[in-house]
């Protein structure tokens, strides 16, 4: 969410957003699992999660109770990836594994196992994904800039939130 606020409001203004948001925050946890557990137990009314979280609940709990908010400014994208390390001694096996990950069988398993959209969609998504919104806007940060500034941003955010 920190990266989303920087992408949407800019490096000069993102802390202003957090200052306005802070009085409404009930909790900031050390991870997604703790926050989502509080949400599903009814301890907090809203949680930062994935747009695909409602699909999980529909698939396994048969409920449409949970919904994802669609932000006018877009959603920050989480990308999970795989690559081959330079200098690997098993290049052939590494390439075979990447090919397997891009296969129809693997990609079709992603929605109901990792609860995310597949990188390559071979078949229609499971029916439970009908309630997972497809954000129209995805604000992006330059990855090199993130690597360069992330520690600074985290310190600024932490200082702001502790005041």
Structural summary, described in words:
This protein is an all-alpha fold and 163 residues long. The protein has a single domain, classed as Periplasmic binding protein-like II (D-Maltodextrin-Binding Protein, domain 2, 3-Layer(aba) Sandwich). It is built from seven helices and no strands. It has helices at 2-9, 14-21, 32-40, 53-61, 91-101, 104-113, 143-161. The mean pLDDT is 93.
In short:
This protein has 163 residues and is mostly helical.
Structural class: mainly alpha
The CATH class: Alpha Beta
Helical content, roughly? Answer: 40-55%
Q: Looking at CATH, which topology would you report? A: D-Maltodextrin-Binding Protein, domain 2
The gyration radius over C-alpha positions equals: 19 Å
Gross geometry? globular
Number of domains: 1
What would you give as the CATH superfamily? Answer: Periplasmic binding protein-like II
Q: Runs with pLDDT <50, length 5+?
A: none
The largest sheet is: none
